[in-house]
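for the recovery benchmark. tokens below, seq after
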């Protein structure tokens, strides 16, 4: 099941996306639900063509937890070692934007880069100090993320809060898929149709259940919280007027234009 959050003539709703994504947006519809998507869905009779609505970020998390250097090739391209345990950082909820929203380049940075990532969305039960089995039960679904990073600030600051935390630095979307198999999915990033990143989720140093369990032993994960699972090699700078596209096999495409602030 694919869960989206969208704006329609009557307001804003969560909804179930129906149809085959491979056939293109024109073939898809979204059926609104009452309330939140966690738990038993209360489907309405409101159905819209996906092309006629505006998709928002599929969830508004209380926190976004990033995982650094979770692909060995990405660690290597920065001359860094693969960590012995997951390397965690936080992105503020105010960094979250949706599909087609603008990534704004801050004036403080001269090297803003894309990072294509699989994002894990926590379900209704949340997660606190869970084992691998509990972690798997806590996962609601998956979406696509772009962990936009001011690389020069990351290097100069010595910690990552400012570099990762600017408004618009966490595009999410286009929807949450609750059934997709992401154990060996292709992760691709293109900038202006040029391939910059290409990897597979099977190349992660720490797999998804390990990450969810590990994070849950540090902080309580609330429903809707998002974990970014790391990025493969190939990160590179973005410039104003670029269009960056992140595709993950089975999840669709997250596309965002870039502009100066």
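predicted aa per position
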């Amino acid at each position: 099941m694919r869960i989206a959050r969208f704006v329609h003539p009557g307001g804003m709703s969560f909804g179930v996306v129906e149809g085959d994504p491979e056939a293109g947006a024109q073939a898809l519809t979204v059926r609104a639900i009452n309330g939140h998507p966690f738990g038993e869905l209360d489907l309405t009779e409101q159905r819209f063509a996906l092309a006629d609505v505006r998709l928002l970020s599929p969830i508004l998390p209380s926190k976004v937890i990033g995982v650094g250097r979770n692909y060995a090739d990405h660690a290597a391209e920065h001359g860094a070692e693969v960590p012995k345990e997951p390397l965690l950082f936080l992105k503020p909820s105010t960094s979250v934007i949706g599909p087609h929203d603008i990534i704004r380049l801050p004036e403080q940075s001269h090297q803003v880069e894309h990072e294509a990532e699989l994002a894990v969305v926590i379900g209704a039960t949340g997660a606190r100090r869970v084992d691998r089995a509990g972690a798997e039960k806590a996962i609601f679904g998956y979406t696509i993320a772009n962990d936009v990073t001011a690389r020069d600030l990351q290097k100069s600051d010595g910690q990552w809060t400012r570099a990762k935390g600017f408004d618009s630095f966490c595009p999410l979307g286009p929807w949450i898929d609750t059934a997709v198999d992401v154990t060996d999915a292709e992760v691709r990033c293109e900038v202006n149709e040029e391939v910059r990143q290409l990897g597979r989720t099977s190349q992660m140093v720490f797999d998804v259940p390990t990450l969810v369990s590990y994070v849950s032993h540090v902080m309580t994960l609330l429903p809707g919280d998002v974990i970014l699972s790391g990025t493969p090699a190939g990160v590179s700078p973005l410039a104003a007027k670029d269009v960056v596209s992140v595709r993950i096999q089975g999840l669709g495409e997250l596309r965002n234009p870039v502009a100066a602030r």
